[in-house]
Write a structure and sequence with these properties.
The chain contains 15 helices and 7 strands. A 7-stranded antiparallel beta sheet has the order 4-3-2-1-7-6-5, with helices on both faces. It is globular and about 70 Å long. It is mainly alpha-helical and 594 residues long. Strand 1 and strand 2 form a beta hairpin. Helices cover 64% and strands 6% of the residues.
Amino acid sequence: MGAICSKLPISVPGLPSNPLDEDKQRQLREMCQEFLETFGKTYLLEYAQGMLKKARKEYLKRGQQPEPNYGSLLVWDKLPSDDGGDDPVKEGWITFEGKRKYLVLTAGYNLLMFDSEEQAHSNAKAKGDLCPLGYKIYKDPASKERKILEKVAKSFGMDLSELPGVKSYPDHSLYIFRKRRTSWVITLENSDEHKEWYSLLKYARKHADLDVGDKVAWKAFKKALDATRWELGYYRRIEYLGKPFELLSDVLVDHIDHIMMTDVYRAIEGAWAIRMKVRSIVIALMDKIVQTAVNAAWSAAQRGIEAVRPEIQAKLNDAIAPILEVRDRIASQIVERANHLISPVVDEIISPWLQPIFDVFRGMLDNSYTMPMSHMSDLLRDMAQKIASEGLNSGKPYKTSKRFCKRYHWAWCNSPWWQRIEPSYDYIDDELKKKLKQLDRITGNVPKSWFREYPRLNKNWVHLHTIYTFETDLGMTLKANESLLSDRSALAREADRIAQQTFSRCEYDARLNAYWMLEYYINVILWEPFYNKCAKPVFEVIKDLEDLIPEPFRKVLDISGTLKQVLKDIFWEQVERLAPPPSQKPGLPYLLPQ
């Protein structure tokens, strides 16, 4: 990274001096180094903790019966093809950067680009790949530039004709764009292809599968990234849409922008076109520095994980019981030594606020989930009647269509059923405005979107799972008894029975999800203040407990991770005293505790 920084120009020919001078470059190097060093250490610790947690879970399950499903509805997993196979969703010829390419939208809604159709259908390595999660899809590539120019013209009181013209693109082009990520402009062969690719990519930007590989490593990555940015004072919300090194670059660039680059941009002088040109050069130089640093740091982190994984796994396989004994002993010591520090924080933050939070949100959540139930019942009955009157494709075995929910999701917002259920979503928004005012003293620092977006998304999934459950159960019944396909009245009775059964499951899950949302709100509001106030003073008291960890176990156990788990246990013990979790046996009616 230092070599690249040393080559950055201090001036740009024909333009004012580059504001990213030697001093700013040094600050930039130091910020990258501080961020990535903190991340690297935390990532390895979180990975070891993740492997320990996984091994502990497997160890405690030995010889036990599997746990019952926590919920009653079948879960729609967004499987990509009708029969659960891996066939591409769409493929075809395009033009990219003036060359003919063959583009494949995979079963997981990722894009792969090849030089030929033969390469696409063989094991050849793709010439380009892109996961469209979080990207914007523009029907007309020029529209993005046009919107920017219109905004600039309005901001500066300029006429649009005074600004540079918009670049022209071939007909039937699409722009797959995300700021500071690899972006593609592709040209399709005709208007029908353009329309179909646009629709599929609009869907893929929200539902593409992110191949994270090792799930323990992915969870460790997210925890380490959050811990790093919080430690360095960066609290903005981020979405985990992209590959790990892309997310690491995004957060680091955003952090540097916030801390340092605002002053750099303000120092740029001259006419608007010149300022924008210099700014684009500065951004490109900064991105190059950050990308080089992140690539090196991420490669080193991956090598570190690969190096410690066999050693950690061997220790866990050979000594999981002794490791857990040491961990439990340390946890007991933490509680014994630090109880005088933890109890006052419980009394200050959790005890006085838990009941008010529960009282404020309980009724709202229960109502928001139960309000649409009568409409869901009507929807299922309507589907059953339609099947009874129109039948199914005769002569063909019925297959559950994994795309059904996708079609349903596309049409959902334009359907009369959505118009009936939509008020329950508006109810959340309206009620939250009132409820949060009552808790403003404790919720003031929490982004309001955290209270609104997750419950809305969660409710939508309950509805999707309901339709998917109905269709899947019907498909399994018809597969077991194909004679129903030729007996319309028997088919009608069976469809109605399954509709009633699915509604009962939907009703149960709706109330179950109301409880989960209550837990979510309590966690969002109280956990961080509780942890932040406890962690540092308690750690000072218990840090010498590190000596209790035998040397062979030190790559698996650490005091800070054990402390965090102890505080979590104390936190949720307080929550569950007031709101005990519901029964895990599917089918039992559940109401929020009174």
